């Protein structure tokens, strides 16, 4: 039987970003759990402009190919993890923009957050993102917050530590538990 799909979304887009290294670390932990087909999704590959669809995403009537491609990627997922930086005490704008492009594709799916920043560890980014998940009926399933000055990316590689690795595993395990009932709910036609 096909495994459920877990999209690990790299939210930062700037040249020189550390997001891909942290997403790769999470990807490997999720792969090792063996419960999902894990897919790395890099916002850079979608090149979404500042939201410019003429109709509201709730209509699902998309004008542009990049939106259709982004919609197909998220529609395929049974679970999601956002890997996000903290920018100015919130999460970064490219992530919000990518979220705003879609509506139904997010609904009733379990979601985790891996955030990172300086000594505030990206906690404020997590807190800013949670109400948006609530608005879109994404079901929050845990977080890991990373203090980069203490646990840095070295030569493009992030290795975590025992606490962070266990936190990442806990997210994957919760997503594993939450995915089947939520899939059943989505397919029930109740919404
Ligand atoms: C525009 C900008 C704003 C930032 N604001 C914060 C902040 O408020 N809190 C924090 O802990 N780190 C902040 N940082 C540091 C970032 O968390 C750090 O540079 C991280 O590597 C950014 O992620 P990225 O490399 O994937 O882009 C900021 C970085 C940028 C580029």
Features:
6-stranded mixed β-sheet, Rossmann fold, binds flavin mononucleotide, alpha/beta, 5 helices, 191 residues
SSE order and pairing:
Layout: E1 5-10, H1 19-33, E2 37-42, H2 65-75, E3 79-87, E4 90-91, H3 93-100, E5 110-117, H4 123-135, E6 139-147, H5 162-187
Parallel strand pairs: 1-2, 1-3, 3-5, 5-6
Antiparallel strand pairs: 3-4
Helix pairs in contact: 1-5
Structural features, described:
This protein is an alpha/beta fold. It has one domain: 3-Layer(aba) Sandwich (Rossmann fold), CATH 3.40.50.360. Helices cover 38% and strands 21% of the residues. The longest helix has 26 residues, at 162-187. Flavin mononucleotide binds next to strand 3.
**What would you give as the CATH superfamily?**
Flavodoxin domain
- Rg, alpha carbons: 16 Å
Number of domains: 1
Indicate the mean pLDDT.
98
CATH class, please? Answer: Alpha Beta
- How is the CATH topology named? Rossmann fold
Strand content: 15-25%
Distance between the termini: 26 Å
Largest sheet: 6 strands, mixed
């Amino acid at each position: 039987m096909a495994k459920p799909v877990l999209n690990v979304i790299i939210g930062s887009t700037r040249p020189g970003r550390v997001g891909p290294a942290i997403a790769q670390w999470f990807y490997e932990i999720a792969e090792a759990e063996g419960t999902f087909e894990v897919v790395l999704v890099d916002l850079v590959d979608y090149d979404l402009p500042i939201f410019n669809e003429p109709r509201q995403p709730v209509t699902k009537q998309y004008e542009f190919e990049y939106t259709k491609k982004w919609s197909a990627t998220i529609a395929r997922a049974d679970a999601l993890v956002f890997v996000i930086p903290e920018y100015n005490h919130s999460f970064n704008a490219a992530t919000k923009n990518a979220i705003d492009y879609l509506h139904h594709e997010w609904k009733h799916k379990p979601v985790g957050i891996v955030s990172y920043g300086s000594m505030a560890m990206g906690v404020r980014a997590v807190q800013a993102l949670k109400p948006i998940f609530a608005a879109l009926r994404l079901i929050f399933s845990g977080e890991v917050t990373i203090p980069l000055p203490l646990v840095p990316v070295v030569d493009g590689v992030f290795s975590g530590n025992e606490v962070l690795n266990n936190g990442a595993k806990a997210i994957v395990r919760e997503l594993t538990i939450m995915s089947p009932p939520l899939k059943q709910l989505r397919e029930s036609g109740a919404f």
